[in-house]
Design goal:
The complex is a heterodimer of chains A (about 180) and B (about 475). Chain A is α+β, with helices and mostly antiparallel strands. Helix content of chain A is about 45%, strand content about 15%.
């Protein structure tokens, strides 16, 4: 497939409500490759652009289980298998004393997988991204809301999409170069 | 007198969390200007100079310690844990408020946490750094600190996993890691804001790298919020576990005055107590110097004072129960221990601690005291002192009066103990001053969420309708 010269079309909005409405309208119009940008988390926006991803909690759960089992096994293996040492006649696998470290390891690995998982799924760190070519995009981290319909969307058409976006109360519609 | 009237009716309508007249843009500009454009206040330069001087004192004290060994401190068997461990517990305790404010208050939907969570988290991080330093310095051979971790070695031995001291290594290092991640994840969107506001190439680059290319995409926000909430859920039991494990260092030992089941809850309450005291100690001057009274409002200080009072009462209950149990247990050693605490050579420390931690916070029942900023600041400092004394009484008081009178010892710290302690405050303050200057000290994106609805930009359709109507 030929690479489109544009990354997409970016519409700027002044409020979160118009952005959500515009995102919903674009979905209804049949656009599928779109993303919204906002200076603060907006409830319902991810759903409005058709985002569904429930992998992160699962990753964290797996991380927690891995941390828990490996934390316990580390202590069990070191104390009962690798170097068994009789301390005051206590059993080698003295599990109650192994709980605190098991707990800490559970939290540590779960927290690491939450942060690294979030960054990896979001594709961060990402030093360059075309949306930063939008002239007023710096305001996306201040007080403005943006909706981008990407050129790889099968329904994307430079002129038609532009006039469609302009009809959604957009303050301005700009072309985003790659 | 620096008295500010409480805004709004205290009982019916809570005062707003953010001063009047702010919208998304002004909130952003106000906080980011501290980092980017405002002239560095004179008081910052002065404060940083003092902090940096104290940091140099620390470097000197540590240098001497490395050369000559722990003999330069006042420790002597039986009092092997002197100021170093007192300082360790004190700093770990202070480190607890940050995560408490961030995680527990987030889970409980306490929106007022927003203005203070960022620098409370930073405070946590810096306090953990100070705390972690002390056990390592206390090792005698600090360069062998990695022996604490389970790693394959030529001696083929492992750490003793049944020992609370090893639990402590895992608890404190996990806590430091999780606090760092929590703080950094919270910073990412704000770093992007600073990146986009900054005019200079160097700062654009640096903040750009730190922001990791954050662009505020809806999908990113969604995952971000999930991750943040999960982290908060994980950090909450972690906070409780860390100071419980620290208390096990004492409670698992059979020393009279240590061997007690009340230690974990009483240590955790004490940690929250001292942590909130430290947040107050820092936030009161900071809001004044940077003119942040609109974000860290009277209501924030009032809420923190109430938490201080509540946890202070729990700590007070701990003191009373300790005394009661000593007599109720019928153990002559425990009884003797308590009497030695109250009337022995360290009685001054004990009664000063009772004054600072049990008497002083009672003033916080009064709304007038809570709204008197100078008074609140003084109380918070007294609580900090009291919590240090508490750890001193526990650590030194018990060790100096062991089971046998032949094992008794009169301990006091040396000038080098003082230099290391004061120096650690220097390290803490230096890091804090650098943080205040170079990073957004209040969470901007969370503050935007507090902008009242009437200040949010309205839909163009709606505006037009009102104008035409």
């Amino acid at each position: 497939m030929k690479r489109h010269p544009l990354y997409g079309l970016m519409a700027e909005f002044e409020t979160a409500e118009t952005l959500i409405a515009a995102a919903r309208a674009a979905r209804e119009e049949g656009y599928r490759r779109l993303d919204a940008y906002s200076p603060l988390p907006v409830e319902g926006l991810a759903e409005a652009i058709g985002f569904h991803d429930r992998r992160l909690p699962v990753i964290v759960l797996i991380g927690g289980i891995v941390g828990c089992l490996s934390g316990y096994y580390l202590q069990y293996w070191a104390s009962a298998i690798s170097y068994p040492l009789n301390i005051g006649g206590r059993p080698l696998n003295s599990w109650p004393s192994f709980i605190p470290i098991t707990f800490e390891m559970t939290i540590l690995v779960a927290a690491l997988s939450a942060v690294l998982g979030m960054l990896a799924l979001n594709g961060l760190p990402m030093p360059y991204h075309p949306v930063f070519n939008t002239p007023r995009f710096a305001l996306a981290t201040r007080d403005r809301f943006f909706l981008c319909i990407e050129a790889r969307d099968p329904k994307f058409d430079r002129e038609k999409t532009k006039s469609f976006l302009a009809s959604l109360h957009a303050r301005e519609v700009t072309e985003v170069s790659r | 007198m620096a008295t500010e009237p409480l805004k709004g009716s205290p009982h019916l309508v809570p005062a707003p969390l953010i001063g009047p007249g702010y919208d998304y843009a002004t909130v952003t500009d106000k906080i980011s200007s501290i980092v980017l454009t405002q002239k560095t206040p004179r008081s910052w330069i002065f404060g940083f100079a003092v902090a940096f001087f104290l940091l140099m004192v620390l470097m000197f004290a540590i240098g001497r310690l490395f050369l000559l060994g722990v003999g330069i401190w006042g420790i002597e068997i039986p009092v092997g844990w002197g100021w170093a461990i007192v300082n360790f517990v004190w700093w770990v305790g202070i480190a607890h408020a940050g995560t408490l404010i961030s995680a527990i208050l987030l889970l409980m939907h306490q929106e007022w946490r927003t203005s203070i969570n960022r620098f409370a988290e930073a405070m946590t991080l810096f306090a953990v750094s100070c705390a972690g330093m002390f056990p390592l310095l206390h090792l005698g051979r600090p360069w062998m600190f990695y022996w604490l971790f389970p790693y394959p070695n030529t001696m083929k031995v492992w750490p003793q996993f049944r020992s609370p001291l090893v639990w402590d290594v895992f608890a404190v290092s996990t806590y430091a890691t999780v606090s760092l991640m929590f703080w950094y994840v919270g910073l990412i969107p704000d770093l992007a804001t600073i990146r986009d506001r900054s005019k200079r190439r160097v700062s654009q680059k640096i903040y750009g790298i730190l922001a990791m290319g954050w662009r505020g995409s809806a999908a990113h926000w969604k995952r971000y919020e999930t991750a943040y909430l999960l982290l908060a859920g994980l950090a909450t039991p972690l906070v409780v576990s860390v100071h419980s494990v620290v208390s096990f260092d004492f409670a698992v030992g059979i020393v009279p005055g240590w061997h007690s089941t009340i230690f974990p809850p009483y240590f955790v309450a004490g940690a929250i107590y001292s942590g909130f005291a430290m947040v107050l100690t820092i936030s009161i001057p900071v809001r004044k110097v940077y003119g942040l009274e609109d974000f860290i409002t009277q209501r924030h200080l009032d809420n923190m004072a109430k938490i201080l009072l509540a946890t202070g009462l729990i700590v007070g209950y701990g003191y009373v129960m300790e005394t009661f149990m000593a007599f109720y247990s019928g153990s002559p050693y425990d009884k003797f221990m308590i009497m030695a605490r109250m009337t022995g050579p360290y009685m001054k420390f004990y009664w000063a601690l009772i004054f600072c931690n049990m008497v002083v916070p009672q003033f916080l029942w009064s709304t007038r005291v809570r709204s008197n900023i100078t008074g609140l600041w003084v109380i918070s400092i007294l609580v900090n002192i009291g919590m240090w004394l508490e750890r001193y009484v526990i650590v030194v008081g018990s060790l100096a009066r062991d089971y046998m009178p032949t094992m008794w010892y009169r301990y006091s710290g040396t000038a080098w103990d003082v230099a290391t302690y004061v120096g650690s405050i220097g390290l803490f303050l230096t890091l804090l001053f650098l943080f205040l200057r170079y990073l957004p000290m209040i969470s901007i994106f969370e503050l935007r969420q507090l902008v009242p609805p009437e200040k949010r930009p309205t839909a163009p359709g709606a505006t037009r309708a009102t104008v035409e109507g």
